[in-house]
């Protein structure tokens, strides 16, 4: 017979009369604490009170983990005055089968009054006898079992109607997780000496090679040695030998061992916190679950047994794959650009300031129009130094020239003075010529930092301002591409290395073989073209794919053709067996190993 909250409160007052205020907590499945009953708070909301207690959750957590009585000090303000009152919180774990189910928490103002209780046998009675019973009596019961069962059957019906037959079993297990009964659910059956995983929640595919699933299957194989008329719970210590990360596993028997069907077991795993008790709602609902799971399992097994015709069908399919020839097309993606185009590269290392970018908004440029200027601090610094050195040498030469006439007027017989001055003057002139030549070269390099459009046309580089404004550039770095949209157009595509041999064979037989091109953005935009050039070398894409660049002359381009339009080009390479066309990549890989 289930007790009411008032009966439990009366039982607590008789067993622990010292506790005038108390809270009864249940440990939920998410490693949290659920308040199921409280007493002694008058008209105040106990929930709003304890939520303001700093460190309160840690007290409950430690008491549950250590399975021992813990105390904590606190303060509270009286309602009719602002005086602080000292409180002592005493957390008593409620334990069953060495597992903490909840916490009985007492709030007292006189800790000395609680010492007799804490030193008596009553603390053991609360912890191991009465406390777990209080929680079980306060668990919410199902108000209307018939209504709940009807709703559950409606959910089963929707799954049967809306889910493909091959996925129904997994969908039923997912429903157990959605109802909050478990974190992961799996169904195993025993066929002869082999344990099979029929379905598992949380994934669209079952990978039996997964180490975690291998360990789970090994554990499940031991469950078929005994019958389970009642559900059984395995805790973490029972699962260590199988290297399972679950905190607890509840095992249900779906089908017992029989003559005409295979036994099966349902496993409910909890990963956040161990579930010490099975949800009472699941216990009440499980007869319906057992019936539905068993029926779905047998239906799946029946469908598998009807697959005798698969072998003949497989032979027919294999014959079709080998003998039926179909056209094989090679596809390559790329983009459209004007054939007459030029690239601009950075002549020096430097920086492009935002005010040095002169790109028109409509992207239309004239020949020799200034597009941008690069600033090189190294060149400007060197030019400034050369200017200073040239000025210094000019001053020295002028000074020597003024000294020479004075030396010529001297009559003391020291004629070598004039000779020395002439030699020095010649040296300075030679040094000046070298500096002036370097000065001219630096000026020319600075002048080359002004980049003009090499032709009249359109800037093809996308978002050039964002890519260049305020950015440092390196010598030789690509900056812009300018093309003439009124010239001929071509498609630049990347042909995969695995397709090169077919492209070459086709073009050797028919050099003017037509390529079909279609816009990736607008399927109705289509063109045709003929291969102009195929790169003799293979490049490596950043994604790891190897390819060769090919240029295709575009026939009859549109008047408003947009540069950079992404396209897919296809080439008809003749007819090959259907199986080869579909499985060409693995066949070629196998051929490379067998030297076919």
From TrEMBL:
Record keywords: Coiled coil, Membrane, Transmembrane, Transmembrane helix
Domain of life of the source: Bacteria
GO cellular component, one term: cell envelope
Coiled-coil residue windows: 383-445
Subcellular location, principal: other
Annotated localization: Cell envelope
Regions that span the bilayer: 308-328
Protein name in UniProt: HlyD family secretion protein
Species of provenance: Rubinisphaera italica
């Amino acid at each position: 017979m289930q007790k009411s909250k008032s009966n439990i409160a009366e039982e607590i007052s008789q067993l622990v009369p010292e506790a005038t205020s108390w809270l009864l907590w249940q440990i939920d499945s998410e490693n949290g604490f659920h308040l199921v009953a409280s007493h002694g708070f008058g008209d105040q909301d106990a929930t709003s009170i304890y939520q303001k207690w700093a460190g309160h959750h840690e007290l409950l957590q430690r008491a549950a983990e250590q399975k021992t009585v813990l105390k904590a000090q606190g303060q509270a303000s009286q309602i009719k005055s602002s005086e602080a009152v000292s409180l002592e919180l005493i957390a008593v774990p409620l334990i069953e089968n060495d597992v903490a189910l909840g916490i009985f928490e007492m709030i007292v103002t006189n800790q000395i009054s609680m010492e007799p209780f804490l030193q008596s046998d009553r603390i053991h009675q609360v912890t191991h006898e009465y406390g777990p019973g209080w929680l079980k009596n306060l668990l919410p019961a199902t108000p209307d079992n018939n209504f709940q069962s009807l709703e559950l059957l409606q959910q089963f019906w929707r799954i049967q109607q809306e889910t493909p037959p091959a996925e129904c079993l997994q969908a039923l297990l997912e429903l157990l997780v959605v109802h909050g009964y478990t974190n992961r659910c799996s169904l195993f059956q025993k066929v002869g000496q082999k344990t099979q995983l029929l379905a598992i929640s949380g994934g669209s595919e079952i990978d039996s090679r997964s180490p975690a699933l291998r360990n789970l299957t090994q554990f499940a194989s031991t469950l078929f040695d005994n019958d389970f008329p009642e559900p059984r719970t395995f805790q973490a210590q029972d699962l260590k030998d199988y290297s399972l990360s679950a905190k607890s596993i509840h095992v249900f028997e779906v089908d017992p061992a029989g003559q005409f069907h295979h036994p099966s077991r349902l496993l409910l795993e909890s990963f956040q916190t161990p579930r010490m008790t099975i949800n009472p709602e699941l216990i009440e609902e499980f007869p319906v679950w057992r019936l539905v799971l068993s029926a779905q399992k047998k239906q799946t097994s029946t469908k598998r047994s009807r697959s005798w015709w698969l072998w003949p069908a497989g032979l027919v399919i294999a014959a079709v794959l080998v003998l039926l020839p179909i056209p094989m097309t090679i596809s390559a993606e790329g983009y459209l650009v004007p054939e007459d185009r030029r690239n601009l590269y950075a002549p020096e290392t430097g920086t492009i300031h935002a005010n040095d970018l002169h790109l028109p908004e409509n992207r239309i440029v004239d020949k020799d129009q200034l597009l941008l200027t690069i600033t090189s601090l190294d060149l400007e610094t060197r030019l400034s130094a050369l200017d200073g050195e040239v000025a210094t040498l000019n001053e020295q030469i002028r000074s020597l020239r003024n000294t020479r006439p004075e030396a010529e007027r001297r009559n003391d017989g020291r004629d070598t003075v004039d000779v020395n001055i002439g030699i020095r003057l010649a040296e300075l002139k030679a040094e000046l010529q070298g500096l002036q030549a370097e000065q001219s070269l630096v000026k020319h390099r600075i002048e080359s930092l002004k980049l003009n459009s090499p032709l009249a046309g359109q800037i093809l580089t996308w978002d050039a301002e964002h890519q260049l404004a305020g950015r440092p550039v390196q010598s030789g770095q690509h900056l812009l591409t300018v093309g003439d949209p009124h010239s001929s157009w071509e498609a630049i595509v990347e042909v995969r290395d695995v397709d090169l041999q077919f492209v070459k064979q086709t073009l050797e037989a028919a050099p003017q073989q037509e390529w079909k091109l279609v816009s990736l953005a607008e399927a109705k935009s289509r063109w045709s073209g003929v291969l102009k050039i195929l790169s003799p070398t293979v490049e490596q894409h950043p994604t790891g794919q190897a390819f060769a660049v090919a240029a295709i002359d575009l026939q009859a381009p549109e008047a408003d053709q947009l540069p950079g339009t992404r396209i897919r080009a296809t080439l008809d390479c003749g007819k090959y067996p259907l199986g080869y066309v579909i499985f060409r990549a693995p066949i070629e890989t196998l051929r490379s190993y067998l030297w076919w």
